[in-house]
Amino acid sequence: MYRTLAIATSILAVAHGQLAGTQQTETHPGMTWQQCTAKGSCQTKNGKIVLDSNWRWLHTKSGYDNCYTGNEWNSTLCADNKSCATNCALDGADYRGTYGITASGNSLQLKFVTEGSYSTNIGSRTYMMKDDSTYEMFKLAPDREFTFDVDLSNLPCGLNGALYFVSMDADGGMKKYSSNKAGAKYGTGYCDAQCPRDLKFINGEGNVEGWQQSSNDQNAGVGNHGSCCAEMDIWEANSVSTAVTPHSCSTIGQTRCDGDGCGGTYSSDRYAGLCDPDGCDFNSYRMGDTTFYGKGKIVDTSKKFTVVTQFVGNGESMEIKRFYVQNGEVIPNSQSKIEGVEGNSITTQFCDAQKQAFGDTYTFKEKGGMANMAKALEGGMVLVMSLWDDHYANMLWLDSTYPTDKDPSTPGVGRGECETTSGVPADVESQSASASVTYSNIRVGPLNSTFG
Fold it and tell me: How large is the C-alpha radius of gyration of the chain?
């Protein structure tokens, strides 16, 4: 569901490559987080932030010629998948100047539109690193919790400040794929439960063959391959709506898929792939409580607040619980108000009942459900912090009536207060260029150790 969005000139192009360039030094901004062992007992860790390689300048390894410009490949440098990996180098990033990414202390701010020297950049996707060549692998099950603060007060309809976990390789795929010489240092190896086909390199090779340019995104396209893995969406949100959503996969780790067999957002058959593209979501508005989350509501998105997610137990019986903390008050998640669906946490029983009540396709269970999600969380996952807009569905699945031709009073259709005409990327990018999200004060530890 993510894409490359910088509007590039002949000097700076946005792409995803596997050789490491030397034109600009890659310096990772620092960001601290805390590992807790008990309430009040937390140790500060010195992490680093890296920008995903799909946003970076990709050029010939011996010079400045672009391998990818707009949404087109250079047919000489990238005649096929293997030659593209051999001929093209991925370069370092000016985090603040080009991409609007600012890390300071325990805080990370992502700006939506950034006017750089050579390009206009839209959105970003970043990862937490352990060191300059390795992603931090967070183990969140069994009986663990993940907590962070967020300020999304100027994140309107159509935008998604997403903080989530995916089962990427810790080194970005360097060990598995010998042609990948850039690795985690340059943000390689992305995968998620949509099995995204807009990635320009997968498994150390280009995704050039069969590339189809997007009809409504001048910087994106879809290739013959996608990259699948388990995904735990801790937080997909703007100031109007939020959802917490596990996505299971039959194969947990990063796996390349082919064509429409990938399924997900980018394929003609959404449910054809290894992964569950829909997830089992808890969106308070969608679950019938329209007074819980938003500006001036119980969780007041006009100011900063704390988000706590607990993973209680293991296997199929794992429960995903949510709390908020604001103004010193611990706020339990809202209760479901949908007939036949009980509770305020995500369990196998909740998913069974919700899918039946909403009439949704139940691929979460088909792909291993809570048991496979627990395996992924226990095995270690990479933390992603991003900001994006949506060329496929205008983010209406998060914050509006979706599908748009359904009655919003039908259970499961109303997801937020945004108009069905909202979220068009061209409108959001012109009218909300100054939007941003700030993630801060990340804490990880045993249950009830990270908040109070």
Answer: 20
Catalytic residue from among 136, 145, 236, 429 = 236
Per-residue pLDDT of the chain (452 residues; tens, 9 = 90+): 333 333 333 333 343 447 666 677 899 999 999 999 999 999 999 999 999 999 999 999 988 999 999 999 999 999 999 999 999 999 999 999 999 999 999 999 999 999 988 789 999 999 999 999 999 999 999 999 999 999 999 999 999 999 999 999 999 999 999 999 899 999 999 999 999 999 999 999 999 999 999 998 888 999 999 999 999 999 999 999 999 999 999 999 999 999 999 999 999 999 999 999 999 999 999 999 999 999 999 999 999 999 999 999 999 999 999 999 999 999 999 999 999 999 999 999 999 999 999 999 999 999 999 999 999 999 999 999 999 999 999 999 999 999 999 999 999 999 999 999 999 999 999 999 999 999 999 999 999 999 97
Buried b (16+ CB within 10 A) or exposed e, 363-401: bbbebbbbebbbbbbbebbbbbbbbbbbbbebbbbbbbb
Domain at 31-51+97-446, CATH class: mainly beta
What residue ranges do the domains of the chain occupy? Answer: 31-51+97-446
- Catalytic residue from among 26, 136, 145, 231: 231
pTM: 0.95
Q: Indicate if 145 belongs to the active site.
A: no
